[in-house]
Amino acid sequence: MKDLRTNFLDHIKKGLKGKPLPLRVLFWDGHEYTFDEQPLVTMHLRSAKVLSRLLMGSALDVIGEGYVEGTIGLDGRYQDILAVAEGLGDVFPAKKPRGGIFRKHHAAHSKSQDAEAIHYHYDVSNDFYKLWLDHNMVYSCGYFKTGTEDIGTAQEQKLDHICRKLHLQPGEKLLDIGCGWGGLLTWAATRYGIRGVGVTLSEQQFAYAKEHMERKGLADRVEIRLQDYRDIHERDYFDKVSSIGMFEHVGRAKLGEYFQVINRVLREGGWVMNHGITAGQQDDEDGHHSGSDFMDKYVFPDGEIPHLWRLVWEMAGQDLEVLDVENLRPHYAQTLIHWVQRLEARKAEAIAMIGDKRYRIWAIYMAGCAYAFWRNWSALHQVLAIKQTREALTPRPWERRYQYQEDSFRRAVPDWGDL
């Protein structure tokens, strides 16, 4: 065991190349080693087996799994723990370069398989999500104007930002794919006067959103369906489509079909907003990256994220013309920090609901995602597109001001004059 420990320590010292690592390591047999005079993180390695796994590489995955399973203890602030884990990831790397928080899959993404994956993540319990989400129950990236807002304000700003981008008008029909607990549809119906349909594969979200619409007096204007997006039967029906934090579950191989469905349900000249996580770098789509095996095993089974280029390319392939692209990467990092803080503040209640192990999964997952967005391993893009019309120019605004100011939308129609 001494040789194993010595090999581990020597490997780290050599791999650091003089860079600081504020880490104190406690071994299972009582030995300890400190790499810095003022360590910010203490790591408890509780068996020789977990040490052997670290030596084999993919340190971020091994540390995440060890923390969840209890074979590794971690003391310190999450941001420091993750920075140390990144340093160890450089010393004990994955077989492929580090990339996004999801990995490439060859999952079939059948309807039954997708339903099972959604059930695993979203049907933990509505009461658990209520502990740390905002009062509108919005489980996607918020929108910060100053960075100092509370999470409730940031989420309402995001909902309104989406509605403005879509230029929602009273009486328009809005389809929300992956509607969650109904936050966006509620906002759009009460403030913009739309009529809506929301689809979800989560049974708990479906029950909550349906009851929520009845309680808000919106049941005659907003329909909630327990339905796969591929089973939406309408054609050329909806004026606008929103998909917020859902397409990560579609699968790269199914993106063409996904946007084909959106094209089919949209009327000519209709708009779609796709808001979702994207890979930070072009090559992050491929291979197995540090941290991604952990996400697949414990958090998002079969989750996949494409790079922005692929998203735009797939949209164009289905006659959806991109109008606007916005990167909200820092907004998602800030959102996740709020969520982790709120979850930690209700730790005892959360553990009583879901157990200690699952609590650790959620805490390290959200903290890790915040770190991934901060480090540009992952991004968040809002892509606004329009279903092309037979006209040479589809209806669109001259400028983006309409997204931020009321009554500033002006349709861009060129004046040919006498030409």
TrEMBL record:
InterPro entries in UniProt: CFA/CMAS, CMAS, DUF7884, SAM-dependent_MTases_sf
Keyword Kinase: no
Domain DUF7884: start-end pairs: 21-85
GO MF term (any one): methyltransferase activity
CDD domains: AdoMet_MTases (cd02440)
Entry keyword set: Lipid metabolism, Methyltransferase, S-adenosyl-L-methionine, Transferase
Family annotation (Gene3D superfamilies): Vaccinia Virus protein VP39
Coiled coil: none
SUPFAM superfamilies: S-adenosyl-L-methionine-dependent methyltransferases (SSF53335)
One BP annotation, GO: methylation
Active-site residues, record numbering mapped to chain: 369
Domain of life the protein comes from: Bacteria
Family: Belongs to the CFA/CMAS family.
Name of the featured protein: SAM-dependent methyltransferase
Organism: Acidithiobacillus ferrivorans
